[in-house]
Structures are given as C-alpha cells and as structure tokens.
Amino acid sequence: MRRFLLLPLAAALLVAGCATSLPDLPADAPVPARFKEDGARWTVAHPAEAQDRGTWWKPFADPALDRLVEQAAERNTSIAEAGARLAQARALVRSARADRMPQVGLGASASRGAGANTPSGAEPATLLQADAALSWELDLSGRLARAQDANALDAQAREALLQSTRLMVQAEVAQAYLALRALDAERTLVRETVRAYGDTLRLTQRRYQAGDVAELDVVRVQTEFSATESEALALDRQRAQLEHALAVLVGEAASEFSLPPIAWSTALPAIPPGVPGTVLARRPDVAAAQSSLLAAQARVGVAQSAWFPSVALTGAGGFASPELGDLFKWSARAWSVGALLSLPIFDGGRREAGVLSAQAQLDAQLAQYRGQVLNAFREVEDQLSALRLLDEQSQAQGRAVDAARRASAISETRYHAGMVSQLELLDARRSELRNRRQALQVRSAQYQATVGLIRALGGGWDAAPSAPAATKEHSQLAAR
Predict the structure, then answer these.
(1) Do 100 and 146 touch, CB atoms closer than 8 A?
(2) Same domain, 264 and 224
(3) Is 475 a domain residue?
(4) What is the rounded distance in angstroms from the CA atom of residue 414 to the CA atom of residue 362?
(5) Are 115 and 148 contained in the same domain?
(6) Which SUPFAM superfamilies match (predicted)?
(7) Looking at the domain assignment, is residue 108 inside a domain?
(8) Other residues' Cβ atoms within 10 Å of the Cβ of residue 40
(9) Any idea what DSSP says for residue 34?
C-alpha cells in the first residue's frame, strides 16, 4: 500500500525531469566594426547598468551648471518615479523568492454547534482549536525558480532605467542651461544693436529737423530700430520659457525659480575621437532592453511549466478540546500530514495560449532590444557627424562675421563721406548683426551636440575642456 501511495510522487519527478529547456535567443543585432565618422573601434561588452555614469558635466567648468545638475538629482520628479518603480520591482523579487520557501502559519478557532458531525451529537457543544500549519510546494518543474529569475531580471531592467532616467535628466538640464546661456549672449548682442539703432534714430531725427536729410532716412532707421526691438522681445520670451523648463527639471516651481543672466564663460569640452566601444555598451537603456529580453525568455519557461504537475507538502499540528482549560493538554493534541498532486487534464487550451503569449512577448522584446541597439548606434553617429559639420560651419561663419564687420565699417566710413546712401549702411549693419547671431547659434549647437554625444555614449568619459567661450559679444554698430 505504501508503494502505491508513492506512485504519484514518483510520476511527478519523472515528468519534471523531462521538462523542456528554454528556447535559445536568436542572434543579436549586428555590431558595426567602427564608427563611420572617426573610425573608432567597437568592442563587444556586457552593459553595466549599475555602473556610475560619472560627473561628465564637470569638464564644462561651470559652477552654476554643477549646482543645477546636483539639485536635479535630488528633486527631479522623473528620477523619483523611476526610483519608486525600482523599489516596487525589488519587492516583487522578494515575493517570488518567498513562494519557494516553506510557508508557516499559526491559527486558532472556536466553534459551537450540534448535529450528526459533532462529538456530542444532537447536544450543542463547543470546540476550541489552536494549531500551526506548514506548506511547501516542491518546485519540480522549475516554475517558481524561473518566475523568480524573471522578476530579478525585471528589477535589473528597472535599475538600468533609473540610471537612464538620471542620465536623461542630467543631459536635459545641461542642454537647457547651455541654451539659456547662449540665448543670454544673443540677447546682449541684439540689445546693444537696439541701443545703437536708437542712437542712430535720434541723430537722424535731429538732422531731419535741421533739413540735412529727407524724411525717408528717418523712416528707414525707425523701421530697423523697431524690427530689432521686436527680435529682442522675442528672445526674452524664449528665455522665459527655457527658464521655466529648467525649473521643472530641478524640481522647483517656475514662479519661484530664476537664473540671472551672466557672462557666458562655459568651456566646450572636446571629446577625443577614439572613444572606446565599451563606453556605448554602458548605455543604461540598452542594458534595460537586454534585461527585459532575458526576463521574457524566463517567462516562456514559466508558461511551459504549466504542463507539468505541481506537488505540495502540507502539515499541521496543534490542540483541540471542548474546554478551554484542557486545550493545551497532551491528550488534546492533533496532527496531520499530506501531499497534494495537481495536474490539469483538460483546460480548453489555456496552457497552450499562455505559452504562445509568452513566446510572442519574447519576440516583441527581442525586436525592441535590436531596435534599441540600432538606435544607440544612430544617436552616436548623429552627434559625431553634427560635431564635425558644426566645427566646419563655425569656421565658415567666423569668416563671414569678419567680412560683415569689415563691410559695415567701410559702409559707415563711406556714408559719412557722402559716397553711399543710408540704405546701404543699414544693409551692411543688418548683415553684420545676422552673421554674428548665426555665429552664436552655431556655438550653441556645438554645446548641444557635445552633451548629446555624451548622453549617446552612456555618460562618463574623460576629457580636458577647451578654451572658454567668448564671454560677451560687443556690438560695434554705433552710428556717428
């Protein structure tokens, strides 16, 4: 008889031993041998989602930027949300680990009744019980282990997403701050131009009143003065919006946050062209996609385990007595042990649907992972090409600024000598202002692309800052 009782357990062990293994993952997305832009070599490396991204903003040598990034790390709401989701994922790992451990509980009950199933028959009687229960599911098919592995991989993905969120917020703070400082320099240039046009307008009005010039000359200067003043107000509006966006990034109300204009002295770091390929492997979003892919693979195994039987061992021991005073006497002891074998025979295709769903999720995660890798390569190439072309554009724009300044100076000399009209002088000044503003915008784009490349490479890197940017553009358009 004992042999027959052990047959279900032996059958469960035999079936579990025949459990299928997890499917092999297809090949990853192809890794290019080198950067297209600078020929730096790529190497295959495992992402390090928990690795420190470093204080990559320090080479910009701007104390105000340092303070803003540190404040964002403490108060940014996106970082706080990602941290809470990581804590939630870690709690799920603990819950899955607990499912593999024996479960112990204490219980007590009191009941009173009468009937055929009570000790006193038709007479009402009281039954008091106090016991401890033990249960433990034998993970013969590996279902619980794979569920724990999947949750642990989800937690790794959340940890990588937290690192990705930190890097994203740091980059957004740096880009917003640098754009604001570039806008301050542009506003200074335009405001000085407005003052120069204002002086010219007042001088032209006096000459018109004295009969030296025609009314058309006054109208032309008035047009340039008003148009440039309108551009200055548009830049003020853009600055206000950037300041408000920066307030949200550092966790402050826009109404209580202000960043006074100062001279733009932020250094522009030069990233060496031979950045190792291992830096890209540290991208936290790629690490998150990889962990999610492995978690989906583990859940395929969980779904496959539903085809195999589950075995649970149970035990209980305690005391039962009709009298409270006799409840804990040795004669009132009671105990039980048992084993439960469960194997669904027909479920209408539920288990098969679960496997197909898990496999489809695995396919989706694989496509997402490949897309993340390809997108990472694209972002790096975008920023490398942007920096190369912006450097060439900066040199060309510098030559244009020099030529425009020279043309403006010559036109002003010729105008005072009576050799050209005021319209030609205004055209020369307008061209100089446009080219100087474009030079500032190209400089700002270089900062944005530098931060974008650092973010695309996954954060930390080593570099020495280049010479600081020009502190202020001074207008030389004052009329005489």
Answers:
(1) no
(2) yes
(3) no
(4) 75
(5) no
(6) Outer membrane efflux proteins (OEP) (SSF56954)
(7) yes
(8) 18
(9) B
Question: Taking Cα atoms as reference points, which of 452, 478, 377 lies closest to residue 37?
Answer: 377
Cα 420 from Cα 236, distance rounded (Å): 35
Query: Percent of the chain scored above 90 by pLDDT?
Result: 26
CB contact set of 175 (below 8 Å; sequence gap of 6+): 447, 448, 451, 452
Instruction: Kindly give the pairing relationship between strand 125-138 and strand 103-113.
Output: antiparallel
Distance CA(285)–CA(378), nearest Å, equals 14
The structural domain count of the chain equals 2
226 with 335, same domain: the answer is no
Q: Helix 143-209 vs helix 77-99: angle between axes, to the nearest 10 degrees?
A: 180
Contact of 472 with 188, CB cutoff 8 Å: yes
Q: Which of 350, 349, 320, 352 is nearest to 336 (CA)?
A: 320
Given a contact cutoff of 8 angstroms between Cβ atoms, the answer to whether 204 and 217 are in contact is: yes
For 220-256, how does the pLDDT look when each residue is reduced to its tens digit (9 = 90+)? 889 989 999 999 999 999 999 999 999 999 999 999 9
Closest C-alpha among 312, 313, 311, 321 to residue 131: 321
- Both 433 and 323 in a single domain? no
Question: What CATH number is associated with residue 124?
Answer: 2.20.200.10
Tokens representing 215 are 């009314």
Mean pLDDT of the chain: 79
Q: How many CB atoms lie within 10 A of CB 350?
A: 10
Contacts of 239 (CB under 8 A, 6+ apart): 180, 183, 184, 187
In-domain check, residue 23:
no
Q: What is the DSSP string of 266-326?
A: -EEE---TT--HHHHTT-HHHHHHHHHHHHHHHHHHHHHHTTS-EEEEEEEEEEEESSGGG
Give me the pLDDT at residue 20, please: 46
Q: What is the 3-state secondary structure (H, E, C) of 155-214?
A: HHHHHHHHHHHHHHHHHHHHHHHHHHHHHHHHHHHHHHHHHHHHHHHHHHHHHHHCCCCC
Please give the residue range of the domain that contains residue 86. Answer: 32-100+140-308+350-468
Token readout for 142 is 């590996």
If asked whether residues 257 and 285 sit together in one domain, one would say: yes
Instruction: Tell me, yes or no, whether 436 and 328 share the same domain.
Output: no
- CATH number, domain of 193, equals 1.20.1600.10
Q: Say whether both 119 and 167 belong to one domain.
A: no
DSSP state for residue 53 in the 8-state scheme: -
Amino acid present at 128: L
Q: Which of 292, 323, 342 is the last residue of a domain?
A: 342
List the one residue out of 176, 174, 180 whose CA is nearest residue 69: 174
Residues 389-419: tens digit of each pLDDT: 999 999 999 999 999 999 999 988 888 888 8
The domain boundary residue, chosen from 296, 318, 342: 342
**Do residues 221 and 131 share a domain?**
no
Highest mean pLDDT among 34-38, 105-109, 249-253, 293-297: 249-253
